[in-house]
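Thread: "does anyone have the structure for this chain?"

Original post by V.I.:
We have the sequence but no experimental structure in hand. Need at least a predicted one for the grant figures.
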Amino acid sequence: MRKISIAIFTFVLSAYSCFSQTTINRDPEIAQMVKEVSADSLQSYILQMVSYGTRNTMSAATDPKRGIGAARNWALNKFNSFAKSSSGRLTAFIDTTTLMPDKKRIDTATLLGNVVATLKGTDPNDNRVFLISGHLDNMRGSPIDRIGDAPGANDDGSGAAAVIECARIMSKHSFPASIIFVIVSGEEQGLLGAYYMANKAKKENWNIEAVLNNDIMGSNNSNETNIIDNTRIRVFSEGLPAYELEKSAKQIRQLGLENDGKARQLARYVKEIGERYVENLEVVMVYRNDRFLRGGDHTPYVENGFAAVRISEMNENYNHQHKDVKKENGIQYGDLPEFMDFEYLRKNTAMNLSNLANLAKAAAMPEDVKIEVKKLSNNTYLSWNIPKSGKVKGYYILQRETTNAFWQKKYFTTEKEFLLPFSKDNYFFAVQSVNETGNESLPIVPGIAGR
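Reply from O.Q.:
Generated one for you, tokens below.
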């Protein structure tokens, strides 16, 4: 083991008594972007999407006023209008593929189009990508009904609007890493637009470090229980990895890392950063990849090995999901704009934006993070190397008890090693990079050294 200075060890001992308190350090640039998120803008986007009558994936592709084609052309035009203030860094297009009938949710050959806008990073040595997603398509009671009106205000006009609003604000700023804003289609046909994009990203070796999928996140009340709450938002994350689990299962079991996969680390990050920048909002972690026996557009990324989470409102109202617009027994059915809470959607969009900005501004994650196990010890020795890209001010060492859901303590160091007077038997640890403006990378759980 490399010798570690007495000064560092003394610092850790003295820090033990004071690091239980949390210091909230907001980046002024991100705080200003958060203030620019507008409930009125979000409402205008949703009203425009609703005006196309239906956005079923198999609805009209060429009608300029009705159907999925008109809606995706509008979304493309919005991205292109934002590109004018991006100094050439934001580019957008509709990425298309043809879906063939499957005798389930596609009954005819259909052109699928994802509206994709990329805000190119400014660091040529940084190939990281951060992606935010929502789906443009919607459905009535039947996934193949492309004729009847289907407003789709919340499912998923809310997620699509959040993506557009983040692009509007963030396109005026520069980030070392690249950000992709994508509005997919084919979600209601089986996550087809997301599968198309995730498979493409895997095939082309995109370095996607995080995916924030937003689906149904703009209404504040539930049917049956009648709970009304616009102060909480859920983030769903997988536990055991869907990608190549058989290769990592032994280490996961041996080290007790069932709760420390990439998606779960991203969910913890989303909670910490979102609550740092958005007032009166609690990000609630849910230990499931998605809602009970249901799925979303983050799943194709998870299955391809990317860190991806789903963000959804706390209390869903099933009277307004996948329902024909009608009124029965005094109950209004249908996914209509009047059931939205645009202030709640503003907060949830701001939570997304703060995370995207913090991730894209931060340096890359530290490399080769290791925990020393050459000898039995009640201390824990960690070491790592500098990240592949970005300038760092230092590093945070994160610590939590094995039974705790969240990181409980942070220790800052400018070194590339750290000795903690805590046993690795009783705690989990991780390391993240920190740059000059205080933006943190995603945390890395250490591998094993000395064995």
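V.I.: this helps a lot. Confidence is low (pLDDT under 50) at residues 1-22.
O.Q.: and DSSP finds ten helices and 17 strands in the chain.
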